[in-house]
Amino acid sequence: MTGSGVEFHTGPRRVSGLPWVSVTDAQNHSCDRDDAQATPQPTTPQVVAGVAPKGWVDHPAGLEFEYLGIADNPPVRTEYNECWAHQREVHAEVSSHQRPSTVIYVEHDPVYTAGRRTRPEAYPFDGTPVVPVDRGGEITWHGPGQLVGYPIVFLQRGIGVVDYVRRVEESVIRLVAEYGLKAGRVPGRTGVWFPSDGVGPERKVCAIGIRVSRQTAMHGFALNIDPDTAGFDNIIPCGISDADVTSMGRELRRLHGPDAEVPSMLEVADRLEPILTEMMSFQPYEMSPDIPRRGHPAFLHPMS
What we know:
The chain is an alpha+beta fold. The chain has helices at residues 80-95, 161-177, 248-256, 265-279; strands spanning 6-10, 27-29, 63-68, 101-106, 111-114, 131-132, 139-142, 146-154, 184-186, 189-194, 203-213, 216-224, 244-245. A hairpin with an 8-residue loop joins strand 10 and strand 11. It is globular, with a radius of gyration of 18 Å. The protein starts with 5 loop residues before the first strand and ends in a 25-residue tail after the last helix.
């Protein structure tokens, strides 16, 4: 832990095998895909004899982790704009090959942020101020009880943006599975979801919105551990009006009863670290299956 309250954890360093899809400057990935086809498994050619593919640049290996405030005792929440400025500083260092790819873990003070695709009707119904940001996707809420991860990852030539997002999703799917929770992808929609059931529709537990500039991803994911999800009542999260928002805590209580133990934010961040490190090595992996889409008129947590 440094004096600034930032803790660095360095993951294993490795050579990665990558799919051959170009990354262009200033790309954005939105909350939803335009089609509802089954999520494809990205192809990942192998690195031969440890030799990196043609066109790769010399970039520091490995994946570092910054625990920004959440490892403090007591934990400290971080104001969004302060963290966004820090993201840009780290992005400049990673994209210029001055430091390894880095994941920033943080818990924010309550805030609404709106990506470039946000429609006016999705804004807070009561006129609450919103921070416009340069990521893909629409509007979302950040606040206490939600682990936000900002992977600032240099994407070597050949790493597809969609493949990168699928790997972030896969990391969270595997993480919640360690707590006995079965989540997955919904075809046509980005993020991590629980399936619809006899009580309500699909429920999103983790939202994802990124921007890629100078071959380096920024922004990232927001995993609901156990927040007060009332913050989502005031908006249409990610512009999706026919689905619900949930949390690990809510799903654990559904499964085990009201006294179910909910992990701390620091525990979740620690357990996610090796999974992200593995997935960001861009080695081939077995992608979790999609969850079936079944609409339901009832809402556990109405959003409109």
